[in-house]
């Protein structure tokens, strides 16, 4: 699976209420976090789909990349990340799709390499002591029809959808040798989270 072409689905549709500013446009010392995320994704996935209602912000922004980069809006509006995943799966050209959000800056190349080598049926996701981690996970394109049914019956939680599908589970012992792997599932919800990320990045990020 390591050489198989895959699509990255980047969700940027949140309202950023707790952060107080649009998380798609977080920047430090003139560098946008989103640009760094795209740079990392471009090294690993031949197609990147940005799910965002800020098309003007992203238009022509990544034209120098050789990757197939699309900017799309959610097909179903105002229902949260399930809509982003559903839309991404519909637009994706590849069977295997990696899900990430614009407020998840702790990219881990070793974990990506690990995912690419794993076989799975419909979803490949890490599970902690309490629940599945729906991001930094892989989804088959065929799941779009299952997700559409889940949404139509009122489902809004990605974790709830994963529980219905029963993913191929990544166990803690499988990734114990990957450095700082616990960080990848963190997202930036509040200004204090952003400040902590900047401090950890020392001279910023690039």
From TrEMBL:
It is an enzyme of class 2 (transferase). GTP binds at residues 11-13, 23, 103. Keywords: Cytoplasm, GTP-binding, Magnesium, Metal-binding, Molybdenum cofactor biosynthesis, Nucleotide-binding, Transferase. GO terms for molecular function: GTP binding; metal ion binding; molybdenum cofactor guanylyltransferase activity. It catalyses: Mo-molybdopterin + GTP + H(+) = Mo-molybdopterin guanine dinucleotide + diphosphate. Mg(2+) binds at residue 103. Its cofactor is Mg(2+). One of its GO terms (biological process) is Mo-molybdopterin cofactor biosynthetic process. Its main location: cytoplasm. One of its GO terms (cellular component) is cytoplasm. Gene3D superfamilies: Spore Coat Polysaccharide Biosynthesis Protein SpsA, Chain A (3.90.550.10). Residues 8-158 form the MobA-like NTP transferase domain. It is found in: Cytoplasm. Its EC number is 2.7.7.77. The keyword Metal-binding applies. It holds the Pfam family NTP_transf_3. Belongs to the MobA family. The N-terminal domain determines nucleotide recognition and specific binding, while the C-terminal domain determines the specific binding to the target protein. Transfers a GMP moiety from GTP to Mo-molybdopterin (Mo-MPT) cofactor (Moco or molybdenum cofactor) to form Mo-molybdopterin guanine dinucleotide (Mo-MGD) cofactor. This is Probable molybdenum cofactor guanylyltransferase. It comes from Anaerococcus vaginalis ATCC 51170. The gene is mobA.
């Amino acid at each position: 699976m390591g050489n198989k072409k895959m699509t990255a689905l980047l969700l940027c549709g949140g309202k950023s209420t707790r952060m107080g500013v649009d998380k798609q446009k977080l920047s430090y010392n003139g560098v946008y976090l989103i640009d760094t995320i795209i740079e990392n994704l471009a090294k690993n996935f031949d197609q990147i789909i940005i799910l965002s209602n800020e098309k003007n912000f992203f238009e022509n922004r990544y034209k120098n990349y050789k990757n197939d980069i699309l900017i799309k809006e959610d097909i179903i509006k105002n229902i949260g990340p399930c809509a982003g995943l559903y839309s991404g799966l519909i637009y994706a050209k590849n069977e295997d799709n990696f899900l990430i959000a614009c407020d998840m800056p702790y990219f881990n190349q070793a974990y990506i390499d690990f995912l690419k080598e794993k076989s799975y049926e419909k979803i490949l996701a890490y599970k902690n002591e309490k629940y599945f981690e729906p991001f930094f996970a892989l989804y088959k394109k065929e799941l779009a029809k299952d997700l559409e049914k889940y949404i139509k019956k009122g489902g809004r939680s990605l974790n709830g959808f994963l529980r219905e599908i029963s993913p191929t589970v990544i166990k803690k012992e499988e990734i114990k040798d990957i450095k700082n792997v616990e960080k990848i599932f963190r997202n930036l919800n509040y200004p204090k989270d952003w400040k902590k990320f900047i401090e950890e990045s020392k001279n910023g990020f690039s």
